[in-house]
Amino acid sequence: MDVTKENILLDLAGFSKADILNRISDYAFKINVVNNVTQTYLEFIHRENEVSTGFTKGIAIPHAKTDAVLKPTILYIRLRDAVDWSTLDDSLVTDIFALLVPEHHIGNLHLKMISILASELMEEEFMETIRNLSKKEDIANYLMNKMLVEEL
User: Fold this and answer.
1) Which residues contact 144 (CB under 8 A, 6 or more apart)?
2) What is the secondary structure of the chain as a DSSP string?
3) Which of 10, 35, 49, 57 is the most exposed place for a label (fewest CB within 10 A)?
């Protein structure tokens, strides 16, 4: 799974969780990660309705598992303004790691992506580094080194 500067969105504006998930779905379509914006958005919303993907310290990890996803992808999104996301610590979200996985990869790949990301998020240095990087290329390279997930 490659992480390139296309996987990075900086300064994304949005006024709500739903609005941001819609913008992420639209962006994923524009960069050929998904073939259906609506289906992707609805899968994000379905997952949020089950349990919020808000983590802690201003981080959310929404994920979509659907046939609309063409290739396993992680997107990093830095928001312009913090948004309410129902996080575990009641913090407003400023940073998002969106995971997109094709339906046929649900099992192992999806779990590996979440596991690696969750492990990295436990290390304060991980988010401190990402938040201090300003160039998409630098963030992509850092994530690529940290998110070594073999495609199954």
Assistant:
1) 2, 3
2) ----GGGEEEEE--SSHHHHHHHHHHHHHHTTSBS-HHHHHHHHHHHHHHS--B-STTEE--EEEETTB-S-EEEEEEEEEEE----TT-PPEEEEEEEEEEGGGTTHHHHHHHHHHHHHHTSHHHHHHHHH--SHHHHHHHHHHH------
3) 49
Q: Is the pTM of this model over 0.70?
A: yes
**pLDDT 10s per residue in the chain (152 long)?**
789 999 999 999 999 999 999 999 999 999 999 999 999 999 999 999 999 999 999 999 999 999 999 999 999 999 999 999 999 999 999 999 999 999 886 567 777 888 889 889 999 999 999 999 999 999 999 999 887 654 43
Our measurement of the distance from residue 96's CA atom to the centroid of its chain's CA atoms, rounded to an integer in Å, reads 5
Residue with tokens 């994304």: 12
